[in-house]
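Continuing the series of single-chain predictions for the mutant panel. This is the parent chain; the variants come on the following pages.
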Amino acid sequence: MARRESAFLGPLLIVVGVLLLLAQAGFPAFSVLWPLFPFAVGVAFMMRYWRSREDPSQVLAGVLLLLIAGLFQLRLWTGLRFSDHWPFFPLAVGLAFLARYGVDRDDRESLLPGVLATAAGVFFYFFSSDVFGWMLRGFLRLVAVVLKVGIPLALIGWGAWILLRRNSELRRSSTTMPEKIEPPRQVEASGEEEPSSPGD
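Parent structure:
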């Protein structure tokens, strides 16, 4: 056994033994802290990979254990229901495969299940939780605001645009009207023209 592994595994076994003894004595320590054990095993997998850089499947197992241990610990602390958060499990599997692909880009076989499981987890989270209902209610509130305020404002703007266009057309038509042409003056019978006024 490697020196670092024994340095990690030894204290872990001691802590597990102490917690089991406390649980036998009636203390609820084990029932509260048991998700720390898969968390510790996940950390051990990650440390083994980062030390050797040989087996990317250790990253997959490590990330999966870390995520699931985190969910169970969160359930113990907050009391969340698995019936509301079951899509977390395909999401965790997808993220674990993507983490494996992230450390070994030549492993194309991890990319497709990672993307599919992650997309399935996000999709089912979207529809199983109240996210979809919350977004739908927000959209309907936005539509109600548009109908109550937007339509009257649009009508006011449309009417103002019609009036402005009419005024500009009237202004253009008044400036382009031809000037009034005076009829020619008649010449008197004597043949002399009327004396023109100084302004003519």
